From TrEMBL, chain A:
Name of the protein: MxaK protein
Keywords: Membrane, Transmembrane, Transmembrane helix
Sequence ranges of Polar residues compositional bias: 1-13
Residues that span the membrane, as ranges: 27-48
Lineage: Bacteria, Pseudomonadati, Pseudomonadota, Alphaproteobacteria, Hyphomicrobiales
Species for this entry: Filomicrobium insigne
Chain spans, region Disordered: 1-22, 184-210
Superkingdom: Bacteria
Automatic annotation (TrEMBL), chain B:
Signal peptide: 1-21
UniProtKB keywords: Membrane, Signal, Transmembrane, Transmembrane helix
Regions crossing the membrane: 173-194
Entry keyword annotation includes Signal: yes
Keyword Membrane in annotation: yes
Protein name, UniProt field: MxaA protein
Length: 210, 308
């Protein structure tokens, strides 16, 4: 308070001297400057406050999802963190189809790093399902899962080539179902050819190794 | 004769130079050739120099996308610049390998052929040659078996769910809030509102309002009288006692901020004396009009506010 008064005192001393001569009209008066600062800071405060409330609401949604509440999420407008939390919720419950359709819509609106993480988590869930399927000798189910997972790992690495976890898990997936120079897996092949190829595709099951 | 020979030799030399400038030259800066893992990005910088009127056929520039089952062309950036008589293309090719070898393995990136077009000539080829690098395995061939958890243990953990940080918002809210409060206090001070309403009163500001109000009304001698009185009361209040023309010096000693307006103040007192004591309201009104009085009151008020 004291400081404000002294400031204005010294400023006005200068003005008193000027008053008798031509007073520069282009200088806005002190009142206008104060009002402008007040308006600008109020706008900034409102904006930051709005963003803060938004983020707090999004964090509350994340907490609810992590706690296990089935909160619906708008894939387009939700923040990347909320989408990741929703994805975690769905993947933890093996609701992969819902997770896939969530990401289909949400990924273009997410931050790049979160896009890659989301694809990576989805791929991990698929590989885990594939492991279960392999244990049950259900290879017809396992191979498409691994192949989808590999695509997502590659997409994730496309965004973040430096991430070692992505590389590691893609390597795991690659050893489950190897790529071959002429992948020819069109769907119109007959079932017999399919099952034969499944066996050649799957050279080693990790558990079966000595 | 000698001249002609010289001219011929010169022509040969120049012609040779032109011929050399005709054929595109390619210089490639390769990245390291060993130590690549799955998912790594390799960047090759090719500099293709062509004749200044030539250009690379845009259709021969490869588009980003998968080249084969393990190699992807991530991006192609082409920059053009001219150095000397030749036009250069700086082409940055970024590849990403997705090969998962079981042992270190030599892999080959295929060559790229750029078609160089020149007006009225046959197109030539600028070839960025194929290039090999060693790709290394990332993991051991036979992972250790650690009983519990099954094969899913082979995987690295999922990316964690995180909360958004609100630090930035809270900091900017605090800064903007403090600025707003300070501005609000300054404004209150400026306008003498609460909590600064106990500041020194401003008699001339009040007088200015009265004079302006009277000046806005239809011209009557009563208005003029009221305006003069309002100003007199302001002088009285400002010095805490009655001020007459003779007291002007002591008034200005007590309130030096009005010193700059001394001629105006003197004129005001003269006019006032003529109006009240010589009873010549009309004459004084001609000398110092109501709007003159308003201007005077305004400058007095400004002086007063400048100090407060």
């Amino acid at each position: 308070m004291m400081r404000a008064t002294t400031l204005s005192d010294s400023a006005s001393a200068g003005r008193t001297e000027r008053l008798s001569d031509e007073r520069p009209r282009f200088l806005p008066s002190r009142g206008i400057i104060i009002i402008a600062v007040l308006a600008a800071s109020s706008i900034a405060f409102t904006y930051a406050g709005g963003r803060y409330l938004e983020k707090r609401a999004s964090n509350a949604t994340v907490r609810a999802l992590v706690a296990g509440e089935d909160v619906a999420v708008d894939p387009v407008y939700a923040s990347s963190e909320v989408v990741m939390a929703r994805l975690h919720f769905l993947l933890f419950r093996d609701r992969l189809d819902e997770a896939q359709s969530l990401l289909d819509e949400a990924v273009p609106h997410m931050k790049p790093a979160a896009q890659a993480d989301a694809l990576y988590n989805l791929a991990n869930a698929r590989i885990r399902l594939a492991f279960h399927a392999i244990e049950k000798r259900d290879l017809d189910h396992a191979i498409p899962l691994v192949r989808l997972a590999k695509d997502d790992y590659r997409k994730a690495l496309g965004v973040r080539p430096e991430n070692w976890d992505y590389k590691y898990n893609l390597d795991v997936a690659m050893r489950l179902v190897r790529d071959f120079p002429q992948p020819d897996f069109s769907e119109d092949e007959d079932a017999e050819g399919e099952s034969k190829r499944v066996w050649t595709d799957l050279p080693g099951i990790p558990r079966g190794l000595p | 004769m000698i001249l002609r020979v010289l001219a011929g030799a010169l022509f040969l030399v120049l012609g040779n130079g032109v011929a050399r400038a005709d054929t595109p030259t390619v210089h490639v800066v390769e990245p390291r050739s060993v130590g690549y893992f799955i998912g790594d990005v390799l960047t090759r910088d090719a500099d293709v120099a062509v004749a200044d009127d030539a250009k690379i056929d845009p259709a021969s520039i490869p588009r980003p996308g998968p080249l084969n089952y393990w190699l992807e062309l991530k991006s192609v950036d082409v920059d053009e610049y001219v150095r000397g008589v030749r036009k250069h293309y700086r082409i940055r090719l970024a590849y990403q390998t997705f090969y998962a070898p079981l042992e270190p393995r030599k892999l080959e990136i295929p060559a790229i052929r750029f078609r160089v077009l020149r007006p009225e000539r046959e197109s030539t080829l600028a070839v960025v040659p194929s290039w090999s690098f060693i790709s290394s395995p990332l993991r051991e061939i036979m992972p250790e078996k650690n009983g519990e958890g099954g094969p899913a243990k082979l995987l690295r953990a999922d990316a964690p769910v995180s909360l958004s940080s609100t630090t930035l918002e809270r900091t900017s809210m605090a800064i903007a809030g403090v600025t707003a409060v300070v501005a609000l206090l300054l404004l209150a001070h400026h306008l003498a509102l609460w909590p600064f309403h106990r500041r020194r009163r401003r008699p001339f500001t009040q007088a200015m309002r009265t004079v302006r109000r009277e000046a806005a009304k239809a011209a009557q001698s009563a208005n003029y009288r009221l305006a003069l009185l309002a100003l007199h009361r302001a002088f009285d209040e400002a010095s805490q006692r009655r001020v007459l023309a003779e007291d002007l010096d002591s008034f200005l000693v007590a309130r030096p901020e009005f010193e700059s307006l001394r001629p105006d103040i003197e004129r005001f007192f003269q006019t006032s004396r003529r109006a009240f004591f010589a009873d010549d309201m009309l004459g004084s009104r001609a000398e110092l009009t109501l709007s003159d009085l308003a201007t005077f009151a305004t400058s007095m008020s400004e002086c007063e506010r400048a100090v407060a």
